[in-house]
Design brief:
This protein is an alpha+beta fold. Helices cover 39% and strands 25% of the residues. Strands 1-2-3 form a 3-stranded mixed beta sheet. The chain starts with a helix and ends with a strand. This is RNA-binding protein KhpA.
Amino acid sequence: MEELIETIVKALVDHPEEVRIEEVKTDHAITYQLSVHSEDMGKVIGKQGRIAKAIRTVINAAGTNESKKINLEIV
């Protein structure tokens, strides 16, 4: 799943070398914490959060076989 997120985000940003993804697992959920260069934050979030929502939709679709909820936080 991290590779999927990384592939999507690196295509969007100007500083792909600064894309970092950290996985945090709990009993009921898996949270991926995404950090990017400060100049790229707007590109990852998009207007009114549309790009971030689309990334989350793709991640949820790809993780349907997991029995846990999958979250994406942009920090």
